[in-house]
Amino acid sequence: MGIRESHTFSAWKWLGFVSAVWVQTISGNNYTFSNYSDAIKTLMNLTQLQLNNLSVAKDVGKAFGLLAGLASDRLPTPVILLIGAIEGLIGYGAQWLVVSQKIQPLPYWQMCIFMCLGGNSTTWMNTAVLVTCIRNFRRNRGPVSGILKGYVGLSTAIFTDLCSALFSDDPARFLVMLAIIPFAVCLVAILFLREIPQSTSVAAEKEEARYFAIFNIVAVVVAVYLLTYDLTGSTNQVFSLVFAVILLILLASPLAVPIYAFVKSWRLVWFEADMERQQPLLKEETTSPPAETKEIITEVAAAASADDATVLVEKTKPVIGEEHTIMEAMQTWDFWVLFISFLCGVGTGMAVINNMAQIGLALGHADVSIFISLTSIWGFFGRIISGSVSEYFLKKAGTPRPLWNAASQILMAVGLLLMALALPGCLYIGSIVVGMCYGVRLAVTVPVASELFGLKYYGLLYNILILNLPIGSFLFSGLLAGYLYDAQATPTPGGGNTCVGAHCYGLVFIIMAMASLIGFGLDVLLAIRTKNIYTKIFNSRKPKKSLAASNGQ
């Protein structure tokens, strides 16, 4: 691969990353249940336990993400995206028909199926995006995970604020958005998102760092813009329309990166063509390939010799940090420590997110859209900051990534206890803390899994870890929150129930805070067990930096 082809591939890689960002921007629809859960509860006359189990059915869809994980090693990325797009259209489309009263409320079991379809659709989208981008940017897994997962966190706020601005929080129109917009965005991403041969040169690594900094800046601007709109609370129609237009422009602005990369590659093509016309003899005299090509040939040869050596040596059980099959990973203590700590983090977060509408009503807030947006926006900050910061400290000092998960668990416990006390303003602070810590957990666990168990079977490994979302939702939201809420609630005429006061969720928050402390202990244990791995990663990157410095002198 010559320099010209390298720059062309780089431009297509960045265009694929922009399309991946757009897919993640619309794939947080699973976290928007609180925006329309009250409408479903009223139309179907459900108790809180029944409503929570409906949200569990939505999260159970993620359990079938194992299919997406298996398919990621066998089907091309466009096919995986198409499957997710169609599932989302059907799942959320059926819910819209019910909420808009175009049809009579469906039987409970049928609603569970359509909830499950909607939930499963995002696993196909996330698998396609994460697996492809992590493989395209192997040396910047932290920033990739932080940015992509950050936009998932913003997704809820984007959908909520657009619906509030354009449709006055109409739940039926909100579900139309959830059905149509992800379908359209995935069709666009199908054209551009695919695995691209990558360069391992120092120059390419520095270029990636610069471009990721731009993506981070744009993402922060979008988050601050959404937060500003939430705090203004304006209901003016013209203001709302202007807000929506500017938001769409901001979401489109990352296109500047691949456009610049394409222009740069075209300029290089013209320059090379001009040089060939002026100095035709150079082609005959120059027999050695470009330095970048030499580097790639050397790496391919080394990889081939390594493969031959592997055949000759008797296969041994891989150690942490090497490529693992799924069964090999599941036979290690480290996998289960990561799995259970992940459950403690995302299970408690999902319970708060799924029950936000009822938590807000219990604590005296009739409109909970601000809390949903705060959870989403600060979830974004947690994801994008933890991705970049964990990468920085890994490169600077070899700091194990699980330590950042441990820090988030302590903060999560504090936020949950604060909401249990039901002090004035506690839901504002609690929404911010829970959103941020939930975001850190999702963003940091993605690169941790790839660093401990490799990238070869990463699609399936990621979806096995994501099983914690439906498991955690069932345990903490469906069982814990559902049963304890119904025990305190008062029946309402026509079916259903309601509860107002700090006692409705007080015990739920305390138990979840204890679970967060268990997760903290497991994360510290994992950081200790994997310290040698992160030291090796840190040391492996030092020689390249030293070599680059010496070449520059």
TrEMBL record:
Q: What is this protein called?
A: Protein NUCLEAR FUSION DEFECTIVE 4-like
- Signal peptide positions on this chain: 1-28
Occurrences of domain Nodulin-like (ranges): 13-259
Q: How does it sit in the membrane?
A: Multi-pass membrane protein
Which superkingdom does the taxonomy of this entry point to?
A: Eukaryota
Domain NFD4 C-terminal: start-end pairs: 322-534
Main localization, broad class: membrane
Organism name: Gossypium australe
Phylogenetic placement of the source organism? Eukaryota, Viridiplantae, Streptophyta, Embryophyta, Tracheophyta
